[in-house]
Amino acid sequence: WQTENGVLLPSLQSALPFLDLHGTPRLEFHQSVFDELREKLLERVSAIALEGKVEERYKKLEDLLEKSFSLVKMPSIQPVVMCVMKHLPKVPEKKLKLVMADKDLYKACAVEVKRQIWQDNQALFGDEVSPLLKQYILEKENILFSNDISVLHNFFSPSPKTRRQGEVVQKLTQMIGKNVKLYDMVLQFLRTLFLRTRNVHYCTLRAELLMSLHDLEISEICTVDPCHKFTWCLDACIREKFVDNKRARELQGFLDGVKKGQEQVLGDLSMILCDPFAINTLALSTIRHLQDLVGQDTLPRESPDLLLLLRMLSLGQGAWDMIDSQVFKEPKMEAELITKFLPMLMSFVVDDYTFNVDQKLPSEEKGPIPYPSTIPEAFTKFLQENRIACEIGLYYILHITKQRNKNAFLRLLPALVETFSDLALSDIFLHLLTGNLTLLGDEFALEEFCTSLFDGFFLTACSRKENVHRHVLRLLLHLHHKVAPAKLESLQKALEPTKQSGEAVKELYNQLTEKLELRKPSPAEVTETPSMELPLPTVPTPASR
């Protein structure tokens, strides 16, 4: 039996007893021969997939699959069967169903085979994608709530290319491959989740996924996505954190080029523009344009570049409503935004310039000119009722905070208490604000500054918005040593978590309490201090000798 079933090589028969002398079992010898043959077979399958005419090579692989598939559950043969299936562009339907029905086989097969299963099985594909999407949202939220508060390294610091290297984007890109049907399914998932949750991070993923496929030059998908060139151009703007004139013209060309009957593409474009990274770039560019206009004595309505930025901001901010209502047309821009609100912002810039010049002028009889402390009622009203005005207003407040302009910050701070759909309490704004406030660190020692910031703004929302509670604790963890002790004590009481507070708030509060305990001088030190000071006056000075 051994002779009949062994390796039939005449020269081997005399060599086998030599292995016996070394105590090597025949099983071990046959296993190593088997492994070697399997490796050769796998190499050969991969080679067949690349040689000869297309029909012939696939015919060979199909024949091989037919012969070997019955052994697919045998662990030693399984890799060969899987390799054959991987190289077949279309695995027979019957075989795919058998793989799908068996959990272990499904797990073991290559992503190329899974793609063929997924494209006709949306539910199964959804089960695979869902945990990745959850992970992606969690990663974004972890960055926003990170304990490292810095003005230099914030949520918007990583470049688009760096972000696309993230695990989730890479996995999704690999799962999609060149399959347009799967790409469409992922986009549908993202649209549905964005509608259900209003979470703008899904819009970021929509743009990152397309640009990741663009990086790999997967033309099969890029050429059929009508947003490809627009996203590519916007991606370059996000990289520079500014929309220059040349790119502004390109973006405008894409928006103006939406033909009648193709308006549905506006839904996708609005989702790309709703990406926080896009909004951030557009808002920063708007603030920069407004400053330039002040220097040029020009009104906002006379600047086509500024109007284009507002048009794109408006489209991005209206993404949810557009996808929800399925009415694909650009939102109408309110004239008052351009004729009243933006000139008002420019007047704030002028107030700063004039105040700074006044400070430098020699003061004669007149006393120092106070900084304007009131804000026009219309400004507060715009922030409450107009989404785009609110977004630009918030970015202007971030801008003055970054410039360490305490006067302007305290002047505009009351307008943040009530904003359009609580935009001033959103995680992205609070993340940026807390980062920028670190630049005003020394002001936290002043009672007036802390009262305005904490009592006038943060604490008004802490009880109803847990995220605000978290951001305030993050800020204090970073700046507690700058705050006056009495104020710190009252803040500690005000920020104490309630029974309803989440774990994250409790954890941050405990960290803060620990830090404050470490800062308190020990009782021994407190009693020793006076005794050290008492003898000092009696020490004779050189002059009195």
Automatic annotation (TrEMBL):
Q: Which residues form the signal peptide?
A: none
- What does the entry give for GO biological process? negative regulation of transcription elongation by RNA polymerase II
Q: Which InterPro entries match?
A: COBRA1
* Disordered, as annotated region: 519-545
Q: Transmembrane residues, as ranges?
A: none
- What GO CC terms are in its UniProt record? NELF complex
Domain of life here?
Eukaryota
Its name, as the record gives it, is NELFB factor
